[in-house]
Design brief:
The structure is a homodimer. By secondary structure, chain A is an alpha/beta fold. The first copy, chain A, has 2 domains: about 1-120 and about 285-333, Isopropylmalate Dehydrogenase; about 120-280, 3-Layer(aba) Sandwich (Isopropylmalate Dehydrogenase). Chain A has 11 helices and 11 strands. Chain A has helices spanning about 15-25, 40-45, 70-75, 80-90, 105-115, 150-165, 190-200, 225-250, 255-275, 300-315, 320-330, and strands at about 1-5, 30-35, 55-60, 95-100, 125-130, 135-140, 175, 205-210, 220-225, 285, 290-295.
Chain lengths: ~325, ~325
């Protein structure tokens, strides 16, 4: 039986959105462990219909970590829902952990409770990005502020294995985010990383640029350090908001453009939905000793449901073993 | 008399677009030196009307550097239009240099011919970015692949002085591009840069994030290293293209949305024009010993005209002296 742990004490929409997402996901083939304040969860559950009462289990946690908590506040906290949830994975009672809470706290607790996969010094977030020809992933999306050369290789191996498993594409193409497509372009770190990727990744296509994150280039996994990755993702997010704000503003300039906006609204909504990574439910933290997914704090119940389904699918596909295998086989090269 | 040097041997639209831009800019109060193949320029000029024949001067250059030329190809080239053009500035025969050519070649030649401003180890590109509340600039937009802590301070001082001079805002607000707004967020380099900016820049507002490049935050000058700056800018450029492609594609799904797009087209065009930094004509390379502007290779004649007008304005405002002054006064602190 597959067991998924869900931290319900997180997210802007509160406990209820998490519980609704969990209940909606159930189909009787797996169990969801709801981790958090037992009384609150019991009370919520008692008010809702559940066709699969056997598929829900409650794990009590005394406290929760707020979205803006700093590392000093949770470093030694062993009472939080994140900590208790991750413990279930560490003790082999469950197969995957999901939280839409404080990503820094999830990262720190995952390192503490689960540790790193053998051979990996820095785990990274794999973030889906929509492009002109389908979804690609960027890794690291911001787990680490500083990276070393070897980290780029690990991000590439983990990212490719994850992409292969989730997007069902054999030998996905790997690109290194840089400031020019030539192998001589880049900063000191990426120039070194380039050489390492060239040796160890047969599907390495070379440097890719910022524009290539979303254009029609044939690349599946874009590797970068967490600092650059975070800034690229947030720059994209900001521009999407700017264009939306401008469309609203400009369309007010005439009746014709007002009508135009009205007629085009369904298309615009579809486009922005595709840009919104909530649709993906949650993103994996690759390189820790267990399957850990972090969702956006703004996730609603359907995003939580998607996250649970994605986690169940990954457990069924034995994602974690194949991630381990991808590192081991490269280390033996 | 103000003298502006224009490298005419550059850009996707060829010599003619440059010459048309130059002729259109003239008003009798300044001279434009056209640098390039004398015969080609003479031939072009002879076929066009020019109300201010006294305001055009031709400087012959035997060769030109192609857009995709590598540094090894132009390192020791002293015959190119870029080299000859920059020589005019170095010999105090002209006040500002403009080219829409190979930015790497302009950067390398500017360092060789003009050198750095005293106290500056790395010059940087100041790129205008549209945001929800007006234009801000990002520096360095990609002149340097690797930066040191002191470079961030120089980018801040030069960027702020440039912003003040061009956008007429006293004491513009300076932000440091990072991965969280708290002072403890960032990579090793930005954490050190933060401390330096805090000491030397009274208008430093702290860290800003990728989303803040284009949102409503009250910041004017965003400081970053050239690697991150290039990737942020190109990520933004890529997303703008993705949204445009998606709008075209989605609107084909129904007659209503087709009509919607048609009615909204003027608004969309306006928005994309604002995103296109060709409207600004050219961006300055700040920190070299002279006023140097680099335009986009796709620039048309009106972009060249804008670039010349901007350069003339900067000479009138004595931009270069104020840039020098901003560095000297901080060094003496």
């Amino acid at each position: 039986m597959i067991n998924i742990v869900l931290d319900v004490m997180a997210g802007d929409e509160g406990v209820e959105a998490n519980i609704n997402g969990a209940l909606a996901s159930l189909d009787g083939t797996f169990t969801v462990f709801l981790v958090g304040d037992e009384n609150v969860i019991q009370h919520q559950i008692s008010q809702k219909k559940n066709k699969f009462p056997e598929s829900i289990k409650i794990i009590h946690a005394e406290s929760s970590i707020s979205m803006d908590a700093k590392i000093a506040e949770f470093r030694s906290d062993r009472s939080s829902s994140i900590y208790h949830g991750l413990k279930q994975i560490n003790e082999h009672k469950a197969d995957a952990f999901i939280s839409i809470g404080n990503s820094g706290a999830i990262f720190a607790n995952a390192l503490k409770v689960l540790g790193r996969m053998p051979g990996i010094s820095r785990p990274g977030f794999a973030i889906p990005i929509p492009s002109i020809n389908g979804t690609r992933i960027l890794i690291d999306g911001g787990a680490n502020a500083d990276s070393k050369t070897e980290n780029y290789l690990h991000f590439a191996l983990l990212g490719a294995q994850y992409y292969q498993s989730v997007f069902k594409k054999i030998n996905p193409k790997i690109g290194l985010l840089s400031i020019g497509s030539e192998s001589t372009k880049g900063n000191q770190l990426t120039l070194e990383a380039y050489k390492l990727l060239e040796i160890h990744c047969p599907n390495f296509i070379g440097n890719v640029e910022g524009t290539d994150l979303t254009n029609a280039l044939d690349v599946d996994v874009v590797v970068t350090d967490g600092f650059t990755g975070n800034i690229a993702l947030k720059s994209i997010e900001g521009l999407a908001e700017l264009i939306k704000a401008n469309l609203l503003k400009e369309s007010q300039s005439s009746l014709i453009s007002k009508i135009g906006l009205l007629l085009l609204k369904p298309s615009i909504k579809k486009i922005y939905k595709r840009l919104d990574y909530r649709q993906y439910g949650a993103v994996p933290l690759l390189g820790v000793n267990g399957l850990v997914y972090v969702g956006h704090g703004r996730s609603d119940s359907s995003a939580v449901e998607n996250a649970i389904n994605a986690a169940v699918q990954s457990v069924r596909n034995d994602l974690f073993s194949s991630l381990e295998q991808s590192i081991v086989s490269t280390s033996n090269n």
